[in-house]
Amino acid sequence: MFKKRPDFRNLLHLTIRPLLTGLFLLSLIFTAFAQTDTTATAAQGGTDAAGGAATDGAATDGATPAAGAAGIPTSDEAIAAGATVFNANCTVCHAINSQVVGPALKGVTERRPLPWLLKFIHNSQDVVKSGDSYAVNLFNKFNKTVMPPFTSLSEDQIKSVLGYIQSESNKAAAPAQAAAGDGTATDGQQAGGGGAAVGGISSQYFTIILVGLIIVLVLILLVLILIISVMSRFLNQRTDLDEEDRESINRTTNYRKIVTSTPFIGIIIFIFLSIAVKVGLDGLYSIGVQQGYMPKQPIAYSHELHAGKYEIPCQYCHTGVMKSKSANIPSANICMNCHQQIKTESPEIQKIYAAIDFNPETQTYGNNKKPIQWVRVHNLPDLVYFNHAQHVKVGGLECQTCHGPIQEMPVVYQYSKLTMGWCINCHRETQVNAKGNAYYDKLLELHEASNPNEPMTVASIGGLECSKCHY
User: Fold this and answer.
1) How many CA atoms are closer than 13 Å to the CA of 196, on its beta-carbon side?
2) Out of 114-123, 196-205, 323-332, which region has the weakest mean confidence (pLDDT)?
3) Domain segments of the chain: what residues?
4) pTM, rounded to two decimals
5) From CA 242, how far away is CA 398, in angstroms rounded?
6) 3-state class (DSSP) for residue 364
7) Of 89, 173, 239, 464, which is most buried by a Cβ count within 10 Å?
8) How many angstroms separate the CA atoms of 300 and 351, rounded?
9) What is the per-residue pLDDT for 388?
10) What is the pLDDT of residues 56-96, one digit of tens each?
11) Are 70 and 109 in contact (CB under 8 A)?
């Protein structure tokens, strides 16, 4: 029988190594949770203060507003048609619940009678020139900004727009009444949430928890080292230990020998080469990838303000997106639709005036025009063919699919990679919306005949063929 001699120094490895491993795993777990949690969006409670009692603020002329909304259509078809007309013609200057260029439109069908609204929308200046006090006060209140006439719209189209406005007004009024009825919501609380964040603990709290755990684990590590030190001193004071045990307790580690050993040097070389190869491959894969590219433009333009706050449709400025390969850079005359009257004193608007040689005081144009040298943000290689109309009009994709949350960008940057692999993955995963689109009828028939149990994706109708993008 051999006597088993305890290696007291192994106690350090048996306690500290699992502790460090646990610390590393906890760091990975909590970092992953923190990054995942930052993608959760908080629920938006309450309603817009301007939308709660949105009125145009003009003095009434004594006429009795329409009692109810007689003559305004309420069918889903008419409201949907009205939404289309409204988005195409009205959103540049108007919103339902907030003032933009013109007044908020919430409750307008209750404030004014239907015949008055029809005349005003057809040609507001005719109503103003007639001396109608309500129209005159409204015109003066909004800095005499001329509302363009909509003589091309039929009476039924205008009624459908009013039906859409009335429907949206009712939707906005319902939550406001519910909040006022229960009397529990406060300025510092979200509706139904009591101010608690929806989607879990915020990433800030995860960071605090992670730091706290690291501190606790470091303290445990120090305590264990202290315990081992005390145990070593205690055992050294014992007189019943033989020399081999005492040597084991007081054994020291030769770090110089470890660092100069062949296995240690081999591990260091392997780690260095692995990092070098990884960095090299990442560099090769990133050639031509400009994700995150955010150039400074000659004129500061905020999509967050125009597309976000004022909800101007992308198609209003990028007029080619529905009918051509390119979405096109908006021309300066599109800017002038609003800024001939609005924010004329802004230094950035003055740059537009200088480019088109416009005098805001005399409202006249000169002949010394200069092009605005915009910096291209999204740029595909010349060997790639991409058609906006095919994706937006035929495919029904939203601009945010490729360009990200454009309505939240003060300065536009390239959100997606726009690489070949990124496009191919999209074609493999995107299901074709063939409902009500005769373009896909034959393709859908062929697909259901060959693969009845699988959804029809872009890839299944030839979206991975090389000639689709390269020819």
Assistant:
1) 7
2) 196-205
3) 49-182, 258-287, 419-471
4) 0.48
5) 81
6) strand
7) 89
8) 10
9) 95
10) 544 444 343 333 456 898 888 888 888 888 887 787 678 88
11) no
Is residue 224 predicted with pLDDT exceeding 90? no
Structure tokens at 329: 């850079």
Q: CA-CA distance, 36 to 203, in Å (whole number)?
A: 9
Ranges of beta strands (E only) in 132-258 are none
| Token pair belonging to 241 | 């230990």
Tell me: the pLDDT tens digits for 376-420?
999 998 899 999 999 998 888 999 999 999 999 999 999 999 999
Contacts of 366 (CB under 8 A, 6+ apart): 357, 358, 359
E strand intervals along 76-159: none
Q: Which residues of 154-182 are buried (b: 16+ CB within 10 A; e: fewer)?
A: eeebbbbbbbbbbbbbeebeeebeebeee
Helices (H), 250-382: 255-259, 262-285, 303, 314-317, 332-339, 347-356
Q: How many residues does the chain have?
A: 471
Mean pLDDT in the chain?
A: 78
Token pair recorded at residue 325:
């390969």
CA distance 121 to 182: 39
Residue holding tokens 């229960």?
Answer: 182
DSSP label at residue 299: S
The helix/strand/coil state of 56 is coil
More confidently predicted of 42 and 134: 134
Residue 227 is encoded by which pair of tokens?
């315990």
Please state whether beta strands 364-365 and 358-359 pair in parallel, antiparallel, or not at all (unpaired): antiparallel
245, pLDDT greater than 80:
no
Query: Helix (H, G, I), strand (E, B), or coil: what is residue 269?
Result: helix
Mark residue 107 as left, alpha or beta (left: phi above 0; alpha: psi -120 to 50; beta: remaining): left
The encoded tokens of residue 22 equal 């646990």
| Secondary structure (3-state) at 150 | coil
**Is 18 a residue whose pLDDT tops 70?**
no
